[in-house]
Amino acid sequence: MRGVRDLLELETQKIQQILGTFQLITRKAGYHQITLPSLEESSLYTKSLGDYSDIVTKEMFYIQNKSYVLRPEGTAGAIRSYLMNCLLGEKKLWSYCGSMFRHEKPQNQRYREFYQYGIESISNSFTPASDAEVIILAADILTHLNVPSVLHINTLGDEQARKDYNVLLGEYFQGKTLSKLSENRKQAQKFLRILDSKEEEDQQAISSAPSIIDCLGQREKDYFDEVKIILEKFKIPFLHNPRLVRGLDYYSNVCFEFINTKALIGGGRYDNLAGMVGKEKNMGGIGWAAGIDRICELVQLNEKQKIVGIVPVGSNCVEQCMHVARKIRMESEFIVKMKTEGNSVKQHLGYLKNYEPTFIIFIGEEEINSGCLKLKICATAEHVFVPIKEVFDHPAVTLSKFLLN
Question: What are phi and psi of 335, to 5 degrees?
């Protein structure tokens, strides 16, 4: 099917490695993982994302007379879950991961089913330090993964600032040549949405559009300046991009993207999202979502895994091999590869060649009778004999003795 794909062994291994890093670092920062449903009511997104956002106008997968959709993003669902399950005002640090779905034209690193990891810091109070901390956390994860990026940051101010800016943009875009999509947004007076357009014919007009900074009150300017000062103190380089709007109606104040040709992580503050989803306007938060598919293209797998291959020498020794394999798997970090079919030694070695094992253990009647296993150190082709009892009692320590530095 166009726009979806199978993730086979190596790509899945990469994604697991990336998700493991996200989960470890966010858990250390106090975030607890939740699991959100893939199916939500469509009204959740029309209320929170905006009728004229790209997601709502052309990208959602609708189900059953458009009453339900496959989730296109995670933040609105997290707030919906918060309002249904938590006490209002209770601070929550949540993370989530999984498939998202958008019915858009498939292209490089952009799929109809794609994978995200996100965090949400949900609270009824916030400070520049709390915003900066969330951004720094994303920067630290990309650094840990050795993925280069440039942080773009902006502020959308409060509700009044955005209303004033929308009027200013409306005056600016009058008479400008725009794409059909942006013309529709102009007619609906959704001028901020035009700034988020990816259409080629809109880019010239967008590049010269006025900045929201001119519409900010002193309080919003000071808040944004304080966030930038904290980022500078933590040596997080950034670019102030005055036309970054993130394309969703629920954003307010600070918004940001980490970009490497395309956005890898994007997010911002959403002070009134709870009021859009439910009725509580004084509940919001800040968060971000990471595009795992795009990051996967930029990440190298970690150093080669430590693999032990086990070769039965004779079909009568398969069960003994299974005992040894189980013991090593249960009590060490080594991955064990073996075939239980009664093939020849040559066929077993051919199977193991695909995995580039660190060691190969041969077990036959001779080894069983002598009480010693024959172990091949693959890097040097050296063979050594190791007491079976040592492998059973202390598999991790015994095998590690033969690892080359």
Answer: -90, 135
pLDDT digits (tens, 9 = 90+) for 350-389: 999 888 899 999 999 888 899 998 999 999 999 999 998 9
User: What distance in Å separates the CA atoms of residue 114 and residue 100, rounded to the nearest whole number?
Assistant: 5
Task: Look up the CATH number of domain 307-399.
Answer: 3.40.50.800
CB atoms within 10 A of CB 152: 18
Contact predicate 265/286, CB 8 Å: no
d(Cα 394, Cα 222) in Å, to the nearest integer? 61
Reading across the β-sheet that carries 39-41, which strands appear in turn?
A: 39-41, 68-70, 61-63
Burial of residue 102 (CB within 10 Å: 0-12, 13-18, 19+) is buried
Beta-sheet pairing, 335-337 with 307-313: parallel
Confirm if 107 and 32 have CB atoms less than 8 A apart: no
List the one residue out of 80, 123, 119 whose CA is nearest residue 285: 123
Rounded-to-integer distance, Cα 318 and Cα 338, Å: 10
Rounded Cα gap, residues 306 and 327, in angstroms: 16
What DSSP letter does each residue of 193-245 carry, written as one string?
Answer: HHHT---GGGHHHHHTPPPGGGG--HHHHHHHHHHHHHHHHTT--EEE-TT--
| Residue showing tokens 């059953």 | 64
Taking the C-alpha atoms of residue 378 and residue 73, their distance in angstroms, rounded to an integer, is 47
Whether residue 119 contacts residue 59, with contact meaning beta carbons closer than 8 Å, is answered with no
pTM of the entire predicted model: 0.83
Angle 48-50-56 from CA coordinates, rounded to 5°: 100
Question: Dihedral of CA 141/147/151/152: which sign?
Answer: negative
Per-residue pLDDT tens digits for 35-75: 998 888 877 877 766 655 655 665 667 776 778 888 888 99
Q: Does domain 9-157+216-296 have CATH number 3.30.1440.10?
A: no
Give Cβ neighbours of residue 4 (< 8 Å, ≥ 6 apart): 111, 112, 113
Residue type, 99: S
**Structure token digits, residue 202:** 């809109």
All structural domains of the chain with their residue ranges: 9-157+216-296, 307-399
> Can you count the helices (H) and strands (E) in the chain?
17, 16
Closest of 297, 308, 363 to residue 337, by C-alpha: 308
